[in-house]
Amino acid sequence: MAGLRGALIVLEGADRAGKSTQARRLVEALKERGYRTEGLRFPERTTEIGQLIGSYLEKKSNLEDHTIHLLFSANRWEQVPMIKEKLRSGITLVVDRYAFSGVAFTSSKENFDLHWCKQPDVGLPKPDLVLFLKVSPEVAATRGGFGNEIYETNSFQEKVAKRYAQLMDDKTVNWKLVDASQDIENVHRQLKELSEKAIDDAKDQPIGKLWE
Ligand SMILES: Nc1ncnc2c1ncn2[C@@H]1O[C@H](COP(=O)(O)OP(=O)(O)OP(=O)(O)O)[C@@H](O)[C@H]1O
Ligand SMILES: Cc1cn([C@H]2C[C@H](O)[C@@H](COP(=O)(O)O)O2)c(=O)[nH]c1=O
């Protein structure tokens, strides 16, 4: 319907929680239900900034810790005009990782606090729903591919899980926690239900600003 906006739905969680699997399924399921829906993921590795990030994650280049944090944030900001345009035109966006990943991962490094890590992302379009896929580092480690990229170690992922828990204390963000150690279909059903409600709630609301 003209004038109604789409929802910004974010999937967050530790590496190998199943975010990409669920994001793909969610986009398809929402489309089947008649919602105009598109997927998006961060980091968006195809841009110039995204290529620097990809090279860092794949351990092909080294970047100073503040620098890589700011690049992750810049990689989100460069997509903001497109995100706003799509939401305003009624398209729902399902986003695989967002600013919460940025804060949870960088603040797990030594000498970084949550407050500093949030600042570059203050004012981004605020998600209408953040689906947190909770899985223990032990279960995540049994899933395919764990260990290829820079942050994929059990010890680092344990720190990341604690940072996410701190972020979820923020009640200004619409967090929904889902047990992602269940089978793919069960997780999917829950995400779809929560998403449909968020789309309905968001449709006549203005786009908010994150952490403002
Ligand atoms: N609920 C599940 N049960 C078992 N295996 C799963 C489940 N969800 C995803 N997987 C498998 O775990 C692996 C990682 O899934 P996926 O890439 O979706 O996770 P991710 O959270 O996007 O990971 P990353 O953040 O590291 O890219 C894949 O092999 C996928 O098939
Ligand atoms: C958005 C974002 C991501 N990260 C980290 C989290 C993961 O370890 C990788 C991305 O891997 P994926 O397989 O493409 O999901 O990057 C980060 O540290 N900061 C961020 O802002």
From TrEMBL:
It catalyses: dTMP + ATP = dTDP + ADP. The gene is dtymk.S. Pathway: Pyrimidine metabolism; dTTP biosynthesis. Keywords: ATP-binding, Kinase, Nucleotide biosynthesis, Nucleotide-binding, Transferase. The lineage of its organism: Eukaryota, Metazoa, Chordata, Craniata, Vertebrata. The keyword ATP-binding applies. GO terms for molecular function: ATP binding; dTMP kinase activity; nucleoside diphosphate kinase activity. InterPro entries: P-loop_NTPase, Thymidylate_kin-like_dom, Thymidylate_kin_CS, Thymidylate_kinase. Residues 11-190 form the Thymidylate kinase-like domain. This is Thymidylate kinase. Catalyzes the phosphorylation of thymidine monophosphate (dTMP) to thymidine diphosphate (dTDP), the immediate precursor for the DNA building block dTTP, with ATP as the preferred phosphoryl donor in the presence of Mg(2+). GO terms for biological process: dTDP biosynthetic process; dTTP biosynthetic process; dUDP biosynthetic process. HAMAP family: Thymidylate_kinase (MF_00165).
